[in-house]
Recover the amino acids of this structure.
């Protein structure tokens, strides 16, 4: 099985050049000028942008939250991803029932995902029970290619400081990356309760009851705990505030190591005005945690990208129906499920807004593809256009079009970025040398995605 | 009742000048040159240093810790204070039994202290039960002159983040100063448990199991929680690390208000070498929390004094017998009671070391007397040499002598500063115009100290 | 000769208290409550504010600039000062003719000032010829009580870096304070020339051709040169920009010593809008160097006061007639003489605006009186309300009135602060125990001011 | 003319991968796995490291200094470069005679270099006469491919601040990069004169008379001047001190743009101990400006590499004979010519020390090859391993050997890095698809290097 791509304007995350690319057995075999090689399939990229396939390391597909379940399953979610130029996801799986092993959660997700995924995938385990058994599993999971775990400082499955430190100590030994959702639980609980008492129940109070300090505090706490564990790899998910980013910057300046910072398109593109500008009902669409923030935070995050302080842009894709689910919060924002769709919009929105702000496409690809691959043990198999790497590509035209619910592929009945004018339009997505999307059509079926053992 | 002091070299915390001082009815009535006024009592200060009476806002007299009780009661403790040039203490009283009101704890301490104190005094309440009732008491206590409260982020009576935020919100309304003992509870618990398992039980492990990050984390957390409560007065007790001080500095730079920083002589004069240099048994004498730190921390704290980042030097005086109590920890540092004597040594050690480092006496008095008075609502009644202020003075000779157990007045069987060469020696202590110490002799009896209602 | 002041609300720059003050032979003899002492003169302060007499360490009286001469001579200038609550000036005298000794310049100014001054005074020498002779004079002048010198990095008498370093080296030995006017000469020259070519000749171009970077650069350069001379006392005059203040802050953080920062009321109260808001002609009134800056600079300077980074507020008083002198610049701002009146407005404007911003009167007096006295070797003779200090006081009522040209005492035909609503009104000024201003009337005649030998 | 390289371990400054590379007509044509292509020449890289050819943007070949002339001409200098893995130099040519045009200097160097260079080359012009004519030449030279210029803040041809600002303004328009040698002229002149008077004439006084502050001051000054010219491209050459690097960092933090920082191997590998450790005569070998610095500076520069603050590592290669030239300074360091050889040692020393410190080879190549190419308008023709780029490569074995005078190719009679144990040994150098060095032998002759027009 071979593929020859002609006339590509290659952007590999580092350099850009015109080239033809020849792939064999799912790998990149030759990059050259005017290659004349026989191939089973041949594409003319026609001077369009060819980039490594996108890697989204923060998704919640088919996530069971008890009362709610995120509405994209592994088929629909990965289809939307593919249409968004993403050919690899690493999903934050659900908490298992308390008392179960990490392995059993992973096994469950292998079952859920395996037959459905149309793109390659892996999982971050989620740890909520810290005990001798689960701590020992870190090494075991690492050996099986699950080299990252997630924990929460809030919500039902949250860990306390002692438990977190135990996890970090174990991760230091096994080399596991620990992803953390950082929010101060106690103060948010109190502020929500107070909002309730005062009848402050419209969506804007979702933002007001999770002030910036609640994120910054938790980020700082995690960093100090990581210091106590001699700096295992610590990855802060969905950083949304200037204050949290500043804690990360200051930490790096004082010598903290192995610290990674993720943000998401919603924090780079939207602000808390969304909770009010089209009325309270519409505001429910943007209930997510952390909430949308202010202009100054948005700008600080873009500055963090420029200064190299933000490492990754992932989505936290976790959609719920507006009509069926979100509107339950119409009298009380606290009842609406938290999460928004985004898996399909990540690359086109960030390339559009990023280049408008003067960032190079290659710099943006660092955040969208290269760093995610490196941090989570996928590189250079994924995330690289180089000889021997997986032949995962996306080809984008510089054509503008408007994002809207009609042209989305998620199950969701709305898009977070309705009306966004994209300057980039996906032409093709290629995985392991096979065209999976071509000119708006899916060319693979459920189950063709492969599980990725990570280092 | 009147007193005339002749020929004083006055240091009032701001200025120095030669003067005579005339006091009437316990107040400063005249300051002048060559005053010729009839007075009931007359002193010739003989060009010695006359300063406002010392104010120690962090003591633990007669503190019931369950298994142990701090061994200086309100008589012996205030006598030692007076011999150390301190004429006012504000004591961190014990936790009451769970469920009791704050008022009942205060009442208990009025009973304990009232008949014994030889110097003026007040209390910080300690809050361990956060509920509607105790939160309402903040205003009530404030009205009665108890304008500060303490809480802990560790130990049995610790509060969690939600409770702390509630206290801070209430304090914002009542104007109460919240003093906080900042250490990360969970990580210290784990490190101590691990030390136990590994047989790391000598006193140096007391320091190693409370690393600098555990203090800095808690300080930062408190600052963010105070931000959530719109900046009530937050007072960090016994700051011991460069890292915690840096968090305070950074917070002030980003605009955090009403934040105060205390340190203690032990952190300015001693380092963790004390845990080992004379053997493990001797090391037990220095078990206290936070523990002694490293040279770099000591130097950072002095720099903090120079830069105005440290506001107060208090003692955390909390003595236990070495032979009877501390030595219980000879096989396991965790069994030894935590706390050291220091109420008597504060002023002479800090003046000696401080002037050696080039600090002016007046700057040091800011930290020892003026700021404590201002922050805790005692100024200008206490802490000021000005017309109308309480006539509380201490007169020091610039004579050197060596601090040793033999010349101490605490009940304790050792001094934390054994062998320290002091360059200052107390000649007299005067309270409300009355000489209470004269040339090494106590001239008042138990119960002459007065309770101070603070603003 | 004695004076008794009754019922004063004393603000001494450190503390405030109610007291009576008794003075004898020009010195403070007693401070007390209800003093009953016979005195030659007796005042009832009537609970008004009594503060130490103001000290203005940056004035240009009778300054010969060649084409122009500042229009307040030592009589009219010191009268205006006294009406502004200032009882001591230290004047930056003119450059002598090139080649003359520093001593001869000082002698000249003794002649000019001696018979005219109505308040006490001293001089900063100005050094423009750096040679073996003048360098040796630093020690000699110091011995005679001239303990500070000024140099310029721009204008005709400017020194180059090598000369500056020589002066700083000599000052390190003699202990002389070196005051520096910091602006980058070459770039301002070029920008002015370019403005000329482009016909940019209205007053706003005075500001635009001296951008913030020109000040910050020179400040930084001086700090590095002072480092090369092992940190003699370096005093930056009229700091006007956030950027320059930041250089000072950063320098202090990296350990630079003996560095002092002055600003002036014009930079704390006015902005470059003055150059345009009432038309270009009116704008000429504000031609001074450095020029008025932007809102952000003004705010940064007030923040610098709060953070202790600004040490002194002086005036740079250097008036010229609007009609006769300033209007010469009506077709070309470069022709107008640079300088504004301000000696009379300093204390009342700063107290008014400062207290409105929440600063305490005592903190403001640190900048207006205490620090100038300390830095320039006048303290505690001047700048202190303490036993033995000179009996220099000003008494202010908290009465509001509007500053206007009609109620000024400078020779100048306009005031920089026309229309400013002051919240403080001078009642009396007292020098060495003698009332020199009383209820709007001058009670002394030319020549009663004394030359002050400084340490 | 074609070349096939088999089995290379490619390090392209971004990624590493195993590949074969096929070049045609001097360009990279194909990169692939197991390429089977007929080629005129074929190399087996044998799994050795293949990197883009080195680019040294700071050399002084055949530099006329009046009394002295740097001893490597364009033949011997470029031969040494090639043996050091450098296939492109951009040389800082000499000052022309005062009054000549920039063009005439460039022409002169075309003559000097053209017939001798064995590798590709370009020039930075040097501007010492600032006038309307030379300022206009910036655009003209830019159009001819001379897109960078150098100026000095010290030495005979130095510019003053006004002239520098004029150059920066012109450079802003033409897009020319301005390289600056930053040292404070006046203070160094004075310190050297004083050293002379005091008989401090051994080589260590070369370092002592150019203290760190002299560099930091000039760097800061240039940055402010660049701000006044609205940020033309400003490139600080041979940054040698922590203080200067800090000024660059701080500037970037406050938003300064288009600022680049170069350092050199001597500042990353050697310290001022070299001036004394083998005696004063030996110390003369290290006379260069700026001088060698202290350990803390060296470490700060490596930290700057880690943090992305240092952009380029170039050599400042400027050799003089030890016996004939340097020893002239044996009684007075000021007489010895300033400059050291280094063109041959750059890549091997930095790769060796850098990888020992944990830096990746690709990160080091950013500083050695990629950034120099990008900043100076050579990229991606030079500095890139991508389709269409010039086929300039160097192949290194990971073999250790010791650098010594015997194995050098410069004319010089000593090497700055005598005894350095290199972990990398050049196997081949290839330029435009042609092998120019093979296994220790030069395979090209004088004049084969080509002049590079830069963007």
């Amino acid at each position: 099985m071979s593929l020859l791509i002609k006339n590509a304007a290659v952007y590999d995350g580092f350099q850009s050049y015109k080239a033809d690319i020849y792939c064999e057995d799912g790998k990149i075999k030759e990059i050259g000028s005017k290659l004349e090689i026989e191939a089973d399939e041949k594409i003319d990229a026609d001077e369009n942008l060819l980039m490594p396939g996108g890697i989204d390391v923060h998704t919640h597909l088919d996530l069971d939250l008890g009362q709610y379940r995120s509405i994209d399953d592994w088929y629909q979610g990965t289809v939307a991803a593919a249409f968004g130029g993403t050919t690899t996801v690493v999903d934050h799986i659900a908490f298992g029932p308390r008392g179960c092993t990490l392995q059993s959660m992973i096994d469950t997700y292998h079952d859920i995902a395996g037959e459905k995924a149309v793109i390659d995938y892996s999982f971050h385990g989620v740890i909520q029970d810290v005990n001798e058994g689960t701590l020992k599993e870190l090494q075991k999971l690492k050996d099986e290619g699950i080299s990252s775990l997630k924990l929460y400082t809030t919500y039902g499955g949250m860990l306390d400081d002692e438990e977190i430190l135990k996890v970090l100590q174990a991760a230091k030994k096994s080399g596991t990356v620990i992803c953390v959702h950082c929010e101060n639980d106690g103060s948010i609980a109190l502020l929500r309760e107070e909002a309730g008492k005062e009848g402050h129940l419209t969506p804007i109070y979702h933002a007001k009851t999770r002030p910036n300090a609640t994120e910054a505090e938790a980020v700082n706490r995690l960093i100090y705990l990581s210091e106590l564990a001699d700096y295992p790899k610590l990855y802060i998910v969905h950083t949304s505030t200037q204050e949290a980013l500043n804690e990360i910057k200051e930490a790096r300046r004082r010598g903290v190591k192995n610290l990674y910072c993720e943000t998401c398109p919603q924090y780079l593109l939207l602000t808390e005005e969304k909770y009010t500008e089209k009325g309270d009902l519409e505001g429910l669409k943007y209930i997510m945690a952390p909430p949308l923030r202010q202009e100054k935070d948005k700008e600080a995050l873009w500055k963090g990208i420029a200064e190299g302080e933000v490492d990754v842009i992932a989505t936290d894709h976790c959609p719920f129906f507006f009509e069926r689910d979100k509107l339950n919060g119409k009298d009380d924002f606290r009842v609406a499920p938290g999460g928004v769709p985004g898996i399909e919009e990540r690359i086109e929105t960030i390339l559009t807004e990023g280049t408008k702000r003067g960032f190079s496409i290659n710099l943006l690809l660092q955040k969208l593809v290269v760093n995610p691959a490196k941090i989570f043990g996928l590189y250079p198999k994924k995330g690289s256009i180089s000889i021997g790497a997986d032949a995962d590509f996306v080809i984008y035209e510089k054509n503008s079009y408007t994002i809207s619910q009609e042209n989305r592929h998620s199950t969701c009945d709305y898009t977070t970025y309705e009306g966004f004018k994209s300057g980039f339009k996906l032409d093709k997505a290629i995985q392991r040398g096979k065209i999976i999307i071509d000119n708006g059509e899916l060319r693979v079926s459920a189950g063709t995605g492969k599980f990725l053992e990570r280092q």
User: Anything to note?
Assistant: The mean pLDDT of chain D is 97. Chain D touches chain C at residues 160-166, 184-187, 189-191, 211, 213-214, 216-217, 220-221, 224-225, 227-228, 246, 250, 254 (CB under 8 Å). DSSP finds 13 helices and 19 strands in chain D. The radius of gyration of chain D is 21 Å.
